[in-house]
Amino acid sequence: MSWKRALVAGAIVLPLIALLAFGMTRNPNLVPSPLPGREAPDFELVTMPLDGNASAAETIDLTALRGNVVVLNFWASWCLACRDEHGPLSRVARAYGEQPVRFFGVVYNDSPENAREWIEAMGGQAYPALLDPDARTAIDYGLYGVPETFIIGSDGRVRHKIIGPVTETELRAQIDELLAETPVAPPAAPITETGVAG
Amino acid sequence: MHAALRFLGALALVLVASAPVSAQDATLKTRPPVVDGDHGLDQSSPPGAGGSTTTGVTGAADLERRTSLVASGLRCPVCQGVSVEDSPTELARQMRAVVREQLAAGRSPDEVRGYFVDKYGEWILLQPKASGFNLLVYVLPWLAVLAGMTVIVLAVRRWTRPLPAEASAQTRAPASTFES
User: Fold this and answer.
1) Closest residue of B to A135, CA-based?
2) Which of A27, A158, A172, B61 is deepest in the core (most CB within 10 A)?
């Protein structure tokens, strides 16, 4: 009757092995974000003027940026991987300067002084840095760490989330995809100006 | 045979007593309604209560208690297996502030948990919801205990079975003996 035993043992062990094998296919460090496909959490954040002059700060309201593809990059001066993506981000931001794409860096759990020094040390940033007091916007976006980049479509929905440093090819491909989807070229300039309330 | 039964009884007791996960489940599940109840009492007391400062203090203490209760069920995103309540990190502190704020604004603990699930996915809950695939986590340990008990019962029955004279002929067919 050893075949019976083997059957019982198999019935117990095989599902267990299957379960563990399924576990091996998953990366425990990658937690899928529920945000892509959903409307991007709204925010109103103040820019961080690089000269430290607070009066030059502007308020950026996400809803006012509808019609634009928005690239929202969370970063911090204490984050090493953020150095790697600074070049690609700035290059892509410059390359799409004429198109309805807006880039923003959100400073995550960092002092404005350190953030400013970091930008200077990195040779400037091609897009505004936003201050996020108490990480409210970061929590609203379900942030796990930095760097994380959200790409928001012109309809205001989060379309992509990139965990870790972005690469130029990846970023360009995702922006191009969203730009191609945009049916009619939106009136980028006026919307941008109302979005930047002064 | 009696000795075997006594042994099994003792084993079952030990298993039940040393089931911390299920005990924790029970406390986590029963706690929130109790807290809501407390909150209900607290809300109903101000009209009759004389000292407004006392209610203010108890209200603040109650808020802190409810904050830590919700926060202890949320996973700190930048830690390894630590709750938002226990983590000393900056993000956990900020998340506790969000919990406190939302509770103070009148949201229920479930609604606050819902907010974080909405942002981070169900991953943020330290205790997964007992539905769908997650049920495995709840059912498998008990199945394992049941399987273990069955194995022990079968083994003990085999060990304590009086060996008849013709045992040599039957020992190779234990399965059929067990099922009888």
Assistant:
1) B94
2) A158
- Calpha distance B73→B126 (Å, rounded): 5
Q: How far is CA A9 from CA A43, B101, B145, in A?
A: 56, 53, 16
Q: Taking Cα atoms as reference points, which of B153, B180, B146, B148 lies closest to residue B4?
A: B153
Cα A194 to Cα A178: distance, rounded to the nearest angstrom: 22
- What number is the ipTM of this complex? 0.81
Residue A79 contacts B where some CB pair is shorter than 8 Å = no
Tokens of B53: 């400062």
Which residues does chain B have within 8 Å of residue A2's beta carbon, measured at their own beta carbons? none
Chain A residue with minimum CA distance to B140: A16
Global pTM? 0.70
A115 neighbors A129 (Cβ within 8 angstroms): yes
Residue B119 near chain A (CB below 8 Å): yes
Q: Does A32 touch chain B (CB under 8 A)?
A: yes
| B179 has a chain A CB within 8 A of its CB | no
The answer to whether residue B155 neighbours chain A at the CB level (below 8 Å) is no
The answer, for A186 touching chain B at a CB cutoff of 8 Å, is no
Which tokens go with A158? 């989060």
A8, A20, A106, A139: which to substitute to probe chain B, counting the most B Cβ within 10 Å?
A: A139
Kindly give the confidence (pLDDT) of every residue in chain B, 180 residues in length, as a single tens digit, with 9 standing for 90 and above: 455 556 556 655 555 555 444 434 433 433 333 333 333 333 333 443 444 455 677 788 999 999 999 999 999 998 888 999 999 999 999 999 999 999 999 999 999 999 999 999 998 999 888 888 888 889 989 999 999 999 999 999 999 988 776 555 555 555 555 544
Q: What is the pLDDT of residues A40-93, one digit of tens each?
A: 999 999 999 888 777 888 999 999 999 999 999 999 999 999 999 999 999 999
Instruction: Please state, in angstroms and as integers, the Cα–Cα distance from residue B156 to each residue in A150, B1, B153, B178, following that order.
Output: 61, 8, 5, 11
**Inter-chain contact A139–B173, Cβ cutoff 8 Å?**
no
